[in-house]
Structure formats: structure tokens, C-alpha cells
Amino acid sequence: xxxxxxxxxxxxxxxxxxxxxxxxxxxxxxxxxxxxxxxxxxxxxxxxxxxxxxxxxxxxxxxxxxxxxxxxxxxxxxxxxxxxxxxxxxxxxxxxxxxxxxxxxxxxxxxxxxxxxxxxxxxxxxxxxxxxxxxxxxxxxxxxxxxxxxxxxxxxxxxxxxxxxxxxxxxxxxxxxxxxxxxxxxxxxxxxxxxxxxxxxxxxxxxxxxxxxxxxxxxxxxxxxxxxxxxxxxxxxxxxxxxxxxxxxxxxxxxxxxxxxxxxxxxxxxxxxxxxxxxxxxxxxxxxxxxxxxxxxxxxxxxxxxxxxxx
Length: 311
Ligand SMILES: [Zn+2]
Fold this sequence. Notes:
There is one protein chain. The chain is globular, with a radius of gyration of 25 Å. Helix 1 (about 5-15) runs antiparallel to helix 2. Helices cover about 15% and strands about 35% of the residues. By secondary structure, it is mostly beta strands. The chain is built from three helices and 20 strands. It has helices spanning about 5-15, 20-35, 150-170; strands at about 45-50, 55, 60-65, 70-75, 80, 95-100, 105-115, 120-130, 135-140, 195-200, 205, 210-215, 220, 225-235, 240-245, 250-260, 265-270, 275, 285-295, 295-300. The protein folds into three domains: about 5-35, no CATH class; about 40-130, Immunoglobulins (Immunoglobulin-like, Sandwich); about 135-305, Distorted Sandwich (Glucose Permease (Domain IIA)). The relative contact order is 0.15. Zinc ion binds next to strand 12.
């Protein structure tokens, strides 16, 4: 009853003539402490989201607040499961939540579940407001073989997509990155094109899921942060590609490369040269397409340039 003594002091100072005010304050206190309609005070896990409103393609951070240690934290955003690093016996780290660029605007419920020291289940709920990022619409004309796929190309594209889908479901349970990410090129602009809705040769197509940087062919491409090389591939659309696994379901992608300088499974450091800029795959000229996935959500990689609270 941490609120009891101050109220008693207030009442006694007010004296006998102030019963009305005393009753009012007591009623206010009782009302404020009344259990919610769903969860009892004991089983509630307080969760905080920052920010509470996030744009499509953005990142929010979930923190838990508990007076006693909790474990086995599980987080769900809408119907999407999020991996929360909750090492045995340790307080869970803040959880990064990626908002997919096509997540419809509106409120989604974030649901967190954990257990306290005695194994009792704790539950927390918080609304997260998804804001419309109002991505621009871009009209492109590209050569027909890249948009009107023959059966063999279509089969290849589907096979490559399956490889990537399996990768997004592969969650390395430890964090491999340290500190803010960096732009993966030296001396380049702020990057363009994330989330653009694309109309190619007059037809609506999948949105642009990365940020493009112009760079001369052969320019070194640098690892945006430490991680392991999850994939080196030559894909139909992305051309020569590298995907880095930074752990906890966070991946960065580097597309249209002239050549890769790394091998799958290799550990890389932040800023290490991993490739050279090219224009392989479906590219209109030499540039670097930089993308990021956070637990499957397609986020703007530039969201990672600011310090994240897990660092
Ligand atoms: Zn691109």
C-alpha cells in the first residue's frame, strides 16, 4: 500500500471539517486501483512501446517493466510472433519490432507474455499505432524480359523467393551487431526510393523494399554492421546479392553487386568491404540496393542508422 500514508497525512491535515474531500480522495484512490476488466494486478506485465506511433517501414522498441525478474518473454504484434531474446535467468532485453512497409495503417495490439520467478504467467497488452508513410508512386519502364517472365524465369524467381523466405524464418538467437549501423558506402547521398509503389510498364508491382544509393561501378560495399554472411547468390531480380545475418532476426541485404568478396558463413565486421557495386539483375544502372528485414518485416535500413536501445 505505498499510496496509503500520504493520503492519511493529507486527511489528518485537512481535519474533521473536510470529510467530504477525504472521502472523495479515498474513492479516487480505490477507483484508480480497481483491477482492470481482463487481468488482475498480480498477473499484469507492464510493457512500454517507444514510439507508440510508428510509420510503415519503421522500428518500435518494447520494454518490459517488472519489479521482480521475469523470463521466457514472448511477444506478438497483431498475429505476428516476434523473437525476444530472454536468456535463462536474465531480465529480457528490449525487443525490436519491425513494421513491414505494407502493414496497413491503424492500431495493432502488441501482446507480451512472460513468467515470473515462481512460473506464474504474466500478460501485457499495449496498442501500437501504425502511421501511413505515404510512399511515393514511381513509374518505371524496364525491358520486357524482366517483367513478362517466361516459365523458366518464373520458376527460377519462385525458387529464389523460397530460399529467402526460409532465411527470414531462421532466427539466430544472439545479437551479433554492436552500435549503430552505417551506410554501406563511403561518401554517398542519403539514399532514395524506400517503399516506393512501383508501376512498371504501366502495371502495379511489388513495392521497392530497399533504399538505393548511387555509386560508381566497382566501389567497395561495406558491411553495415557485424554479422555473418547468410547468403551469397546470383538472383534473377537482385543480381549478385549478399545477405548478412546480424542475429535476433535482423538481416541486411546488398543487391546488384558486381562481385562478392565474402563467402557464406564468414564473420564480417562493421565497415568491412564485402563486395563491389555493380548493376547485375534488374537494375537500371550501377547502384547499391540496401535492404533490411527485422523478424521478417521489410523495414527501411536507414532506421538502423540511429542508436538502438539494445546497443
Ligand atoms: Zn533498389
